Inverse folding.
């Protein structure tokens, strides 16, 4: 139980029922009462907390911008970063023969911890813990900071009620460990086509979209 007391201090929260934190840190592979139900609840608590924070912090942000920022903050990647701050990995109980402490397992456990705090106290307390842990990530997020070229191009076209582009993967080269993709971005309404290159389909499409934005800007300059 000592290691869970250490974790509670890192969370800056004192559990009335410490067994909840133990359950939150127990993976299903351990073969005892696990954290899946708490994870389910914690996911909702996290989503509501982040949504309200973004709604209040960015009063002029569009629904699209809010959704983009929320998706980033509640992603497994962001959860893993937050979990690393409190070294949650060292507190997770699991069966080494059946599973590994993957980033997804650690992220899910953090959601379970949020669910445990909610059950142990209330929404306000859980939100306070979440926002405190998320502070470093919140300092580096802003409206528009997460948009990729495909998002920007789509918004630009929708704003002017133009037809949306289509993307095609033309070809790829290289061996299986060093692939190179070529993507085309086609905008029929403007009779424009751009080519993008990248080491993944996504990267190639984003490169093509970035070039399309530049072409559109040149046409309207």
């Amino acid at each position: 139980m000592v290691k869970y007391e250490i974790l509670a201090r890192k969370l800056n929260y004192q559990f009335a029922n410490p067994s909840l934190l133990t359950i939150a840190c127990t993976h299903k592979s351990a073969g005892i009462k696990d954290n899946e139900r708490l994870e389910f609840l914690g996911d909702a608590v996290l989503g509501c907390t982040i949504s309200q924070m973004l709604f209040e912090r960015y009063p002029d942000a569009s629904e699209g911008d809010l959704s983009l920022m929320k998706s980033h903050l509640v992603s497994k990647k962001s959860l893993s970063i937050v979990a690393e701050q409190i070294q949650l990995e060292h507190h997770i109980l699991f069966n080494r023969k059946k599973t590994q402490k993957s980033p997804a397992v650690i992220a899910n456990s953090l959601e379970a911890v949020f669910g445990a705090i909610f059950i142990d106290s209330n929404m306000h307390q859980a939100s306070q813990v979440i926002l405190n842990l998320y502070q470093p990530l919140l300092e580096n997020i802003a409206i528009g900071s997460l948009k990729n070229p495909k998002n920007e191009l789509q918004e630009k076209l929708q704003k002017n009620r133009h037809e949306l582009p289509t993307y095609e993967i033309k070809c790829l080269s290289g061996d299986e460990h060093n692939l190179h993709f070529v993507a085309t971005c086609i905008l029929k309404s403007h009779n424009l086509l751009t080519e993008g290159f990248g080491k993944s389909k996504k990267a190639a499409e984003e490169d093509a979209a970035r070039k399309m934005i530049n072409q559109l800007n040149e046409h309207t300059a």
User: Anything to note?
Assistant: DSSP finds ten helices and three strands in the chain. Strands lie at 166-173, 180-187, 192-198.
